[in-house]
Amino acid sequence: MHLSTSESRALARVFELLADGMDARAMREQVGLALLDLLHADQFASFVWDAGGKQFVDGVWLNMDDANLARYAAWFQYHDPITFELQRRRHATAVSEVMPHRELRRTEFFVDFLARDGLHWGINLHAFDGAQALGDLRIWRARQRREFEPRDKALLDLVEPAFVAALRRAQAAREAAALPPPVGEDLEARACGPISAREREVAEL
Question: Per residue in 79-122, pLDDT tens?
């Protein structure tokens, strides 16, 4: 695939961010900013599917209104005609591949949610580790731009393995940080830590 100088620079920035080791939420937001540049897009959002709660959580977004996203969290994610179909694809997929745009424009989801922030042409990538959903990338263009093309999908698919790997690393780091320290390390930390008032009294006898 031939890339322009600006595209090569933007793609390199995406991979740099994915290798940075930052936490998953910050990484998704920063990668989103770089993807807007790479794909000549206007709006970005990213969520994590909570299978237990059956809802999308931990959202980050760019160039979208906070109040509109609050409506998404409270209502529209449960009345969303496209995202679950996009999620099932498990690779970069243009929104028009799961619902023709002329049909989408007639839905409440488009009129009362997407159009409020100017989202017109969309593409999604949903990252999985086996059956576990790790996070997604939702990228949109304004009406005056063109629809996403196979080349745009190929660029996102190129990013997918590194995106999945970065989310796996972030999840492993989060889980490791939540574990209690080994017994030996805990005792050592106590021994090296400040002494209590009672310990000070005993030491002064």
Answer: 999 999 999 999 999 999 999 999 999 999 999 999 999 999 99
SS3 197: helix
Strand partners, 46: 60
Tell me how far apart the alpha carbons of residues 29 and 35 are, in angstroms, rounded to a whole number.
10
Radius of gyration of the chain, Cα coordinates, nearest whole angstrom: 22
**In angstroms, what CA-CA distances link 130 with 18, 90, 126?**
20, 11, 12
- 168: nearest Cα among 137, 138, 133: 133
Domain 5-179: which topology? Beta-Lactamase (3.30.450)
The whole model's pTM is what? 0.86
Contact 43, 63 (CB under 8 A): yes
Length of the chain: 205
pLDDT in tens, 169-195: 999 998 888 888 766 655 555 555 555
Q: Choose among 148, 126, 130, 150: nearest CA to 138.
A: 126
What single DSSP character describes residue 3? -
Contact 44, 140 (CB under 8 A): yes
In angstroms, the first-to-last Cα distance of the chain is: 78
Report d(CA 108, CA 112) in Å as an integer.
6
> What is the 8-class DSSP label of residue 98?
T
- Run of H or E including 29: helix 24-38
Q: Are strands 43-50 and 132-141 parallel, antiparallel or unpaired?
A: antiparallel
